[in-house]
Specification:
The structure is a homodimer. By secondary structure, chain A is an alpha+beta fold. Chain A has eleven helices and 14 strands. The relative contact order of chain A is 0.16. β4 of chain A pairs antiparallel with β5 (58-66) of chain B.
Chain lengths: 345, 345
């Protein structure tokens, strides 16, 4: 839907971009750079087309998500170029956690009053993130909805589809007590917990321009650090090691998300076994936030978990590190559900 | 993202629904009713899984869209049960227009303050629409974003993925002057033009409770009439007749959308060759809206177009009518681009 404007300049698929300004030209080039030979040209079409090949028993994995109130931080700072990477990487990690390879992405940007340059900034960021992950950006929609969004506030939603062989689906089935939980470091808040994160800054009377509490950059920069993707490193891992469960640590933190990868089992996580980006310390101290709330609201430094058999753990960590990811053994699978935090072994 | 709440009760995929109230139980049952054997159980997973089979050269078709400010009409009337069908049918028609069969759907509902009953009402409506079309609802996300949305205002976004054989993709290639444009009737405004439609009602001092200007129902009921899906009838058509182009008539109306199906050709549409739901007459008269604006903003009675060779037109119309769709020959393909409106032959 594009209300009573002509069809959006960046209409679903094949990616018709009609606005002539410079930002849009950059956006168009970025989007087209994500199109390999799998993308079937459909420039004014109603859906983005992607030729799937090489799979005997293909399973499609689909997910949709938004960047949440991280957009309000972006608005305060006046910088929208990282939000595209946030939504692409968030969605790609969700597809990845199911065992599939993310292949195509479509985005939705809605605002009370669409600023073409801002939309182009968001879409260009999404396209660059897609390109980095080998994902084709095949469609998008911009919606101008005065009355629903205040002024230039915007919401950013993305959907990602991937595929894999049926035998490569990972659901946590087969996870066994004694398996090892490997944590992949987050880059910061990713896209979760911004309601609390913003409140802490506001209550403390801080500005996003300030450099505070152990940060080497401004609060705004730390808060806008893009959501990290794990596609390259986890794909490398899966070529070498059998992975039994995977969790993307989003809203709900480790206690809310890790059990989703454990097929009914639970986990004991070793306190202090991983490093935390400084932004979490800032929030904890500034807001005097209790530790269990920190853990339920934020990823506290672990953005993604993989679960492997104990005898595979060392090799898995080696492969992940070779792929440039400072993976750590952060816990073990135990009987029963839930997540407990305990001193390391 | 689910902010600092625990993971949403209706989290991406496999469809984990944890709230226990009655509305949610109904929602769960509706969502599960859309799951055939193709859906791979992944109840707490991060992505919805669907086994694709039967295609030698599969092409995936992806689209994303929102219901726009139709949500504000729903809010005024206090009725959200039709919005799910709106977003499902809108997205499904987009996939359909590319030549693919819609297979899976994921939804995103965002609000300043999520009312579980309202979310359940929306999702239940989406699930019922999916079920009617043979689409599996494999995931969803609810986002609570105080500060971005006012109070209980909400935005509803959906993404639909479909697939077809590569040879069944329809892009408008091969459309030739002299081909026939067949119009499939819309049910009303579908999901476009609500900014103007709402303004007309407001400026006239009408209430959505009023029965006005030729309507047999209230203005609110007419405005909320669900977006019609064309999946069943067009699928039947394609089993019998070769379709050269298809257009879903959304924002931009016939002039904005029909050319997208014509591979560079244009169309002459016959004035008066189709019927208009009464709601368009109401808006035209009440708002004194010029005809060309009506045609650019609204579907004016044609929700979907198919383009066939002249010699196939009669059979195509017959098949569509047998499938329960009052299809009409509404125009012809001409050289040059664009759409002109002219007296019929």
């Amino acid at each position: 839907m594009t209300e009573n404007n002509p069809p959006s300049s960046y209409e679903a698929a094949g990616v018709s971009i009609e606005r002539g300004d410079e930002a849009t030209d950059l956006m168009r080039a970025s989007v087209e750079a994500t199109h390999g030979p799998e993308v079937i040209p459909n420039p004014r079409g109603f859906a983005g087309l992607y030729a799937l090949s090489g799979l005997r028993e293909p399973v499609l994995a689909s997910t949709i998500d938004g960047v949440g109130t991280k957009v309000l931080v972006a608005g305060s700072v006046g910088r929208y170029d990282t939000l595209g990477a946030d939504i692409v990487n968030h969605c790609a990690n969700d597809v990845l956690a199911s065992g599939a390879t993310p292949l195509v992405f479509v985005d939705y940007v809605a605002s009370g009053r669409l600023d073409p340059a801002t939309v182009a900034e968001v879409v260009r960021g999404a396209a660059e993130a897609c390109e980095a992950l080998g994902i084709s950006l095949v469609g998008g929609e911009t919606a101008e909805m005065p009355g629903l969004y205040a002024g230039s506030d915007l919401d950013i939603v993305g959907a990602c589809m991937g595929a894999c062989e049926r035998g490569d689906v990972v659901t946590g089935e087969g996870v066994t007590a004694g398996d090892v939980v490997i944590g992949l470091p987050s880059s910061g808040l990713h896209t979760n917990g911004y309601t609390l994160a913003r409140k802490v800054v506001e209550d403390a009377g801080l500005s996003y321009e300030d450099v505070a509490g152990g940060l080497s950059k401004t609060v705004g920069e730390a808060y806008l650090e893009p959501h990290r993707a794990y596609v390259r490193e986890v794909s490398a891992l899966r070529r070498s090691v059998r992975v039994r469960g995977m969790a993307h640590i989003t809203g709900g933190g480790l206690p809310g998300n890790l059990p989703r990868a454990l097929g009914g089992k639970g986990a004991r996580l070793y306190e202090g076994a991983w490093e935390e980006p400084a932004v979490f310390g800032l929030i904890r101290n500034l807001g005097d936030v209790p530790e269990d709330e920190m853990r339920r609201v934020f990823n506290v430094g672990v953005g993604f978990c993989v679960v492997v058999k104990a005898e595979d753990a060392e090799m898995a960590i080696g492969v992940l590190r070779d792929a440039g990811c400072e993976a750590k053994r952060i816990g073990e699978v135990v009987e029963g559900g839930g997540v407990e935090f305990a001193p390391g072994p």
